[in-house]
Structures are given as structure tokens and as C-alpha cells.
Amino acid sequence: MSSQKIVLQRKDRKLIENIFEHPCDVFSVKFSNYEDTIWCKSISEIYIALEQFKKNGTIKTDENGELLY
Description:
Helix content: 25-40%
Largest sheet: 3 strands, antiparallel
């Protein structure tokens, strides 16, 4: 499990419902009012997904829900 922390601004915290860390430092991220769960392979990918969501209201993923960028 990762020992890194995810630091979000208050306005960004409202955009994410929850983040779960899974074995091998894989994270499942559920964004507010977004149907799909996003799978990220690192904390930096969570930030990339957040920026995509803030910019477009959508997040680019593959057929397995893994983040594309």
C-alpha cells in the first residue's frame, strides 16, 4: 500500500465521492455525479483524472475503466 497522501483543495474534494486503495497501489475513484468508477495506477493519475473531469465533465478511459491520457 502507498504511503503517499492525496491532497485536494476544498472545492476539488466536492468532486470526488470516494477513493479506495487496492493492492499493488491501484486506486478506484468515484467522482460525484459521474456514473463510472475510474481505475488509476498511481496518485498522479488521480490528479490527471480530476483535471480531465474539471475541464470536460468527463474522463477518458479504456473499456476496463482505466484512465487514458
